[in-house]
Amino acid sequence: MKIIFATHNIGKIKEMRALLCDLDIDVLSADEAGVTEDVVEDKETFEGNALKKARFVSEKLGEWAVADDSGICIKELGCRPGVYSARWAGEGAGDEKIISHTLKQMKDVAQGRRGAYFESAAALVAPDGRHWIFRGRVDGRVACEPTGTPRPKLPYDMLFIPRGHEKTFAQMSDQEKNALSHRGLAFQKLKKFLKNEICIKNENKR
């Protein structure tokens, strides 16, 4: 089975391949599949943006496609940046600018009021147009300074400390993070669905 991950984010590709490594599935990035266009993420929900991206790639290639939209929601900031997490520091802002902008917005927020949550929606679209949505969420807080080893295009990993832990995502190994992250939870649900889909296909071949 082949699935095109509708993203140009190498950090997300690495995470998905790690999560699905024990299934007989080839995961290709949009670039590897020959889709270089960027889909405008203009929906008001994570689900809407994820479905728009996955549907675009699936219809263009006639393949199974998956996309996710994720973001951090900071309670003291009215759950911003949410769906604007990748661009609230400005279009094309790099990881360092996003981190510094976030900390600037939080500079007057005391330790006990830095609650936040990460949310993710993964959309899977079949070649025949059917689609499924898988959701994940993890609660935690925003650190006062960036800590850990940065992952490409995942700037909030250096700021987010999940509930029940004292380390940021960036201080955790890929395996640790994937076991409890918002994207990890959503993709685990996706993985369960795909595993069942593969079993059904194998049964039908007998």
Commentary on this structure:
The protein has 206 residues and is α/β, with parallel strands linked by helices. It has one domain (2-205): Maf protein. It has helices at residues 10-19, 46-61, 95-105, 174-180, 182-205; strands at 2-5, 26-29, 64-74, 80-81, 115-125, 131-142, 160-162. Strands 1, 2, 3, 4, 5, 6 and 7 form a seven-stranded mixed beta sheet that branches.
Structure summarized in a few sentences:
The chain has 206 residues and is α/β, with parallel strands linked by helices. The chain has helices at 10-19, 46-61, 95-105, 174-180, 182-205, and strands at residues 2-5, 26-29, 64-74, 80-81, 115-125, 131-142, 160-162. It has a single domain, classed as Maf protein (Alpha-Beta Complex).
Order of helices and strands: EHEHEEHEEEHH
CATH architecture: Alpha-Beta Complex
Radius of gyration: 17 Å
**What number of structural domains do the residues give?**
1
Backbone structural class: alpha/beta
Number of strands: 7
Biggest β-sheet strands, sense, barrel: 7 strands, mixed
Distance between the termini: 17 Å
Helix content: 25-40%
The first-level CATH class name: Alpha Beta
What oligomeric arrangement do these chains adopt?
A: single chain
Shape by Cα distribution = globular
Strand fraction = 15-25%
